[in-house]
Amino acid sequence: MRFKNTIWMGSLCASMLLSACNNEGTEQYSNKEPSLDKSNLQIASIKNQKVSGTILNTPFSVDQAVLNDDVLVIKQGEDFFPDVEVTLYLFEEGSVAEKNFETATMDLLGRPHVWLAAKQNDDQLPNKVPVMTGYDLALSFGKQEELGIPFKIKLISSEHETDIEGHGFATFDDIQVRNKKVDPQADTMDTLEHLARDYLLQESPDLKLGKTFGSSIYHFGGSYPKSGHVGFEIHNNVDGVSTVRIQLAKDEAGWKVSNRLSEGQLPQAHPVPVEVERSERDVKKNAATLMIARHLETNLNQQNLMPKVRATRVHCNLLQGEQKGTCVTQYRLKNEESLECHDNRYLVAVSKGAWLVEKEIPITDKFDAETGKFISSNYRPIGSC
């Protein structure tokens, strides 16, 4: 089980207490308890069904539940901001496995804090409502498993038109679980990390894997095909820390490992083959991008920097006529506990049917389409170091 940082919890609690005192411009939560028959909220009586009901008067059916330390998030929807969501801050030290949380037996100050959220109409962002009192909860966690913990819940807040009930499984990471294994269909970084980690440990069970880095997913439209990669630090007793990068591809069966790169190889310089229809312009742009990625890879290896590389980005734009273009390379080097960002910009051109680097140009120069020349400026492109 891997825990994530919750150091911000203190400031979150302080902000919620302050918002409770502010009567202007925000929806307030009540300190009045709903008149409920507490016997209906006993853990033993929770229905054995998928967690469902209503949240903020919005129909709800759980798609995913994630447990980070003592914070339980139950949500519906696949977007970055879920359509409907409830978050419970349990304020429990240690694991919550095999523990119960019942408002009927808890002091008011010791109760979990609840945040309800739901998108209204066509809103892109959900409306969030803090609920510290004025609700009843029965929540029970089962035995801890490798990928998460089963739970059952009944939550009612009459004031906020919320009533959910049922059984679920909360994962420790942003993954989906099917038959007690990671579901390879889910398009999350944690899914790729789990699959890549399992692949490496099957090859070398004694491998000491450290932090991940440089994880990416490339979309080409639709559920598949897709490609991605994950980097791992490897700790050993000989030369300290080395790195390895795993490439993955997704088809109708889901994600699977397709290649293991050596420490001197960049994923952008050795892309996973993907069969998709591309315009002639995109084919040229991809060829330029591949060339500049290999140019970056060569430069980093010549300077013996690859063991320190933790992230890379390459991007090219074609100029008028599509025989020339500009490309930006960016890489981040690990220096103790920080990352140093470096970027370069190049003018590239087609020569004898192949893309080549003509010269390096300042990252701040802007291209003048009328004169076909680059003009000095103080402009820094979005995403530059």
Molecular structure report:
By secondary structure, the chain is mainly beta. The chain is 13% helix and 42% strand. The chain contains three helices and 23 strands. The chain has helices at residues 9-21, 189-203, 280-302; strands at residues 52-55, 58-61, 64-68, 71-76, 84-89, 100-102, 113-118, 127-131, 136-141, 148-157, 162-171, 177-178, 181-182, 209-219, 226-236, 240-251, 254-261, 309-318, 324-335, 338-351, 354-361, 366-368, 373-375. The protein is elongated, with a radius of gyration of 26 Å. The two termini are 34 Å apart. Mean pLDDT is 87; it is low at 1-40.
Please report the distance between the alpha carbons of the first and last residues.
34 Å
Protein structure class: mainly beta
- The value of Rg in angstroms is 26 Å
The overall average pLDDT, rounded, is 87
Q: Number of helical runs?
A: 3
Largest sheet geometry = 6 strands, antiparallel
**Low-confidence residue ranges:** 1-40
Total E-strand runs: 23
What's the assembly state of these chains? single chain
Estimate what percentage of residues fall within beta strands: 35-45%
Topology record:
Blueprint: H1 9-21, E1 52-55, E2 58-61, E3 64-68, E4 71-76, E5 84-89, E6 100-102, E7 113-118, E8 127-131, E9 136-141, E10 148-157, E11 162-171, E12 177-178, E13 181-182, H2 189-203, E14 209-219, E15 226-236, E16 240-251, E17 254-261, H3 280-302, E18 309-318, E19 324-335, E20 338-351, E21 354-361, E22 366-368, E23 373-375
Antiparallel strand pairs: 1-2, 1-11, 3-4, 4-5, 5-7, 6-9, 7-8, 9-10, 10-11, 12-13, 14-15, 15-16, 16-17, 18-19, 19-20, 20-21, 22-23
